[in-house]
Write a structure and sequence with these properties.
single chain; about 400 residues; alpha+beta; 5-stranded antiparallel sheet; 4-stranded antiparallel sheet; about 40% helix; about 20% strand
């Protein structure tokens, strides 16, 4: 009984913890960058010291699938526990609980609107911090150099958030939120729900405490409704009333009306398997992401030619550095041991930049007497020993000699 009465205290602790994470993470610096931020100018995602460039965004697609199926799995097991305990919208609405108070005078109503606007402003600007460093934001704001796109984004987002917090509030959960509409296809007879126990209906004293406290205005005694967000406020309200009668709450968290927790159901096992597949794929892709891209193309401005018993081919080398530091490269060729490779040294590429080099490859002419074309590989070897070399296939061609016509 005590646990049921304290249920909302636990929920408040979770909400405050989530809010603190949301507000503080953008200010946390890891590896010289925000802990979590999508940097639009460089088109890369910073995530606790790692960075994912736009070229590798397929990794985020796999991560999106992982999160999606993880959400389905949690819903199959615990219903709308996300909505009632972790959803950012619900958390922020709960933090503006004072706005739901009735019978206030004009001054208090104005103060409520001001407080809600401040909460909306803080929440909106914090969302911007996940795209723009908060340190850069306030430096530019103080210097009058804040970009118009950033400024307008803050303004529009603040207004929309304020309107949502004052006009929509919990109606969002019952009308707009697509998750509430989709949950019905994820529930089964063993999913965790908030339910009124029909077996104890005779104990109900019709106090309506469960209805009055419900944020979405439901009467849990009439049965499960898709709009229920599993917040458990009706459980706490009923527990407080029934405590006076020395009886446990008539509303409970139960695993379906069979009241049996069974995580080994077919649908749960299938979803678990798919979630693990995407989770493992994401970890593997993130661990094997290459810090640079390497490509070798024929130099269209230079035709193969022969000089001093050696054949010369030319290539365009393209290296894109998608790491956070300068990388110096050396080049070598696999497929033959007798060669000379000429290019401008040192070949260094800065972060976010694409380096281009024209290289000339010399191979003795006798190497191409039997085969006019050699299939070779060129390797880009970074100076950082932790980075693996990359290779690119190429062809080395013998020059085509035009036949001269003999005039008789």
């Amino acid at each position: 009984m005590t646990m049921m009465i304290n249920l909302q205290k636990y929920r408040w602790a979770v909400r405050l913890f989530n809010t603190a994470l949301f507000l503080l993470i953008p200010w946390l610096i890891v590896g010289g960058h925000s802990a979590v931020r999508f940097d639009i100018p460089s088109m890369r995602l910073f995530f606790f010291g790692a960075s994912v460039w736009i070229e590798n965004f397929f990794i985020l697609l796999i991560f999106t699938f992982f999160i999606t199926f993880l959400g389905i799995l949690i819903t199959q097991l615990y219903g709308r526990i996300w909505c009632g305990w972790f959803c950012p919208h619900t958390v922020m609405i709960n933090l503006t609980w004072f706005f739901d108070r009735k019978k206030l005078n004009f001054i208090n109503k104005v103060l409520n609107h001001i407080l809600v606007f401040l909460v909306s402003l803080i929440a909106s600007v914090t969302i911007v911090f996940y795209f723009v460093s908060p340190y850069d934001f306030f430096r530019d704001l103080a210097g009058g150099t804040l970009g118009s796109v950033t400024a307008w984004f803050c303004i529009v987002l603040t207004v929309l958030t304020y309107l949502s917090f004052t006009l929509v509030r919990y109606k969002f959960c019952t009308t707009i939120c697509p998750y509430s509409k989709l949950q019905s296809i994820m529930f089964d007879k063993n999913t965790l729900i908030v339910a009124f126990d029909p077996a104890t209906a005779d104990k109900c004293i019709k106090c309506n405490a469960c209805v009055k406290t419900c944020p979405v205005g439901l009467d849990i005694r009439k049965g499960l409704v898709s709009a229920c967000i599993n917040c458990g406020q009706c459980i706490t309200a009923c527990a407080k009333v029934m405590k006076k009668k020395q009886h446990p709450s008539l509303v409970h968290y139960i695993f379906g009306f069979d009241k049996q927790k069974n995580p080994y159901r077919v649908n749960v096992m299938i979803t678990t398997f798919i979630t693990l597949i995407f989770g493992i794929a994401f970890i593997w892709m993130a661990a094997t992401t290459k810090p640079f891209e390497f490509q070798v193309l024929p130099n269209q401005m230079f035709m193969p030619r022969e000089k001093d018993g050696r054949i010369i081919n030319s290539y365009e080398i393209i290296v894109k550095n998608i790491s956070d530091k300068d990388i110096a490269f050396t080049l070598d060729v696999k497929g033959t041991e007798e060669y000379e490779l000429q290019y401008e040294k040192p070949f260094t590429v800065k972060p976010t930049e694409t380096g281009k080099q024209t290289v000339f490859l010399f191979i003795p002419a006798q190497k191409l007497e039997k085969f006019p074309i050699l299939s070779l590989e060129m390797h880009a070897i970074p100076d950082d020993k932790e980075m693996k070399p990359q290779e690119s296939e190429m062809s080395f061609r013998r020059p085509i000699k035009a036949k001269r016509k003999t005039i008789k």
